[in-house]
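Milestone 3.1: sequence recovery, worked example.
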């Protein structure tokens, strides 16, 4: 009996053990599968690209914020330079990247530029959001101007935050960003590949301009949600480290003027009196792409598109061409102004 019972008992225990092991393995498989599903579900379904001002090695200032800083500074009324806003925002919240900006402190300070609530109530746009880039920069610019930034920027920054080290830090960052986006780029060969030809640089400019095709026109716009003609030039050349003012006439004034027969891809084409404005002659600008065509942001209700330069409406208003100075791109031409 024993010789029979023991094997039977052993066989039964083995079967039970095998059963438990199978259950355990199954549970582990289900757990691993569940974890995999959760992990995959947590992966982003889209990729977000944050573009920084390029042509430099250490610049972390996003292009869209840079463009907005120029707009806010230009409308400040006290001659405030955009680089001061860049330095201030870098110092306060690293351009909105620091999560601590959401945590109220020192009487309720929150937001991108970390302004005291009482000052925010005075200098922010009506109903302004301290986490909105435009509202925050506008409030900071107004505060600095009211604190005498037009006469003494150090004193204005000290009024913003009563610490000499703070003023030094902001001015350090401001100087860095201003230097890295200087429009005189003759020595910044790192912004394009060494040895690249004028033609290849022009092709790069056109390539960046093409990425804006299909964006709706918006007066005063500088983003993918809407952009105007001079805003398009600003945004495209920002990718090459060039700082332009958001105004077609001032862009015309800032570039080297070239004869029409020497136009190359990447040059700018300008148009006069495309709408009635007694204060301006140049009222529109486009980016030349070759073969008598341009990429531009035409007008309300239209999209950034390829348009003729020398025929139709644009041909009737054509006023001249200009070349932007870039590293490794020759600006020499016969008859250039």
């Amino acid at each position: 009996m024993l010789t029979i019972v023991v094997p039977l008992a052993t066989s039964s225990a083995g079967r039970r053990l095998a059963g438990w092991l199978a259950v355990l393995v199954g549970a582990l498989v289900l757990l691993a599968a569940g974890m995999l599903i959760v992990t995959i579900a947590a992966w982003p379904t889209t990729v977000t690209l944050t573009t920084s001002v390029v042509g430099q090695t250490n610049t972390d200032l996003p292009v869209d914020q840079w463009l907005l800083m120029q707009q806010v500074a230009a409308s400040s009324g006290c001659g405030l330079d955009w680089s001061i806003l860049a330095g201030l925002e870098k110092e306060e919240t690293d351009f909105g990247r620091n999560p601590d900006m959401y945590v109220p402190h020192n009487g309720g300070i929150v937001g991108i530029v970390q302004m005291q609530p009482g000052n925010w109530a005075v200098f922010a746009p009506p109903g302004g959001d301290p986490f909105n880039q435009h509202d925050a920069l506008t409030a900071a610019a107004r505060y600095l101007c009211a604190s005498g930034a037009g006469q003494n920027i150090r004193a204005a920054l000290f009024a913003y935050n009563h610490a000499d080290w703070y003023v030094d830090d902001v001015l350090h960052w401001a100087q860095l960003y201003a230097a890295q986006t200087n429009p005189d780029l003759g020595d910044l060969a790192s912004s394009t590949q060494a040895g690249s030809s004028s033609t290849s640089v022009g092709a790069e400019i056109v390539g960046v301009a093409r990425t804006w095709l299909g964006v709706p026109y918006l007066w005063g716009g500088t983003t993918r949600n809407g952009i105007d003609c001079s805003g398009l030039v600003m945004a495209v050349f920002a990718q090459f480290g060039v700082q332009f003012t958001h105004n077609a006439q001032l862009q015309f004034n800032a570039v080297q003027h070239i004869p029409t027969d020497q136009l190359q891809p990447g040059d700018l084409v300008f148009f006069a009196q495309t709408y009635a404005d007694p204060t301006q002659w140049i009222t529109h600008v486009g980016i030349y792409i070759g073969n008598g065509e341009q990429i531009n942001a035409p007008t309300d209700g239209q999209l950034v598109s390829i348009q003729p330069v020398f025929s139709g409406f644009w041909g009737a208003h054509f006023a001249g061409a200009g070349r932007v100075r870039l590293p490794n791109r020759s600006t020499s031409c016969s008859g250039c102004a």
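The chain has a mean pLDDT of 78. The two ends are 116 Å apart (CA to CA).
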